[in-house]
């Protein structure tokens, strides 16, 4: 998803960057790189059309995501232990606080990848057990961010009238990821009350995240209409809107499939399958509209000299959820149009991921991205003057 970019951050003047200070700048927003990498593996594994070599590629990408997750857990967790006061400022930063939602989603993304592609490498039993652990931790963390970060916004964080941006979705989207990835675990549960409870729990998290996301998407649309964009490296965060849209389509489809496997009675399972299509297709249509708008605004900002920033990870995970959602619609409607759309969107995801991953690696090696400390200064939006 997205991370604070050059326009959102500033280095302290005349302050030497010690190793601890540099590592302290690796906040929860860096987990977006795990999400953006892991979704490449998941989307590839669920494509309606499988090509030679794709399986091996998705396994390699999943390994990269898993390694990234371990490294970031060590770095971010270690910083919290060594410098809790400094680390705590991230939670009070109106730009950074929202990205605490990235860590739970990173955990569940790697967990889902374990079930979908990791079983051939580590064994199906271990893959399922690993997913249960990561899903449980991610769900608990995601429910916490869905409550705590909005509470901070309501009571403490200073928010400007033009402050709404894609990052606001980060704390409330994790329960939707829990719903989608939880559906993958349902077939591994014994039939009975436990499986049925899990199914309804996933639907409850689906609704929690969907309604909260719709409120925030409306505020982002309103901000764009009233104030315009920031014209900065924060513009790519507009792509985050695709996250709850694509993930909700994915969740509706996967939960419908799980329901049909005996989690509930046939009548309810048929209704849930119908819901997956009746809900998914209209939301998919809005997602296509948003892709067109976000593309236009991103290209416009690029032409005006937008520099590379970690906000570009917004072009990966959200687009990946659009791919998985489209794949679910292809599976449930059996229409070739959705199959083609999923394949085209996955090609776009691959190209973007390669670009963003390469630029991130280069910036990290050079130290440019590691030396940027988060700023709490508001980012102002503006429109072009009429000629």
TrEMBL record:
Its main location: membrane. The chain crosses the membrane at residues 30-49, 61-81, 101-122, 134-153, 165-186, 198-221, 275-298, 310-331, 337-358. The keyword Repressor does not apply. It is a multi-pass membrane protein. It is found in: Cell membrane. GO terms for cellular component: plasma membrane. Pfam families: SLAC1. Keywords: Cell membrane, Membrane, Transmembrane, Transmembrane helix, Transport. The keyword Transmembrane applies. It comes from the Bacteria. GO terms for biological process: transmembrane transport. Belongs to the tellurite-resistance/dicarboxylate transporter (TDT) family. This is C4-dicarboxylate ABC transporter. It comes from Mycobacterium asiaticum.
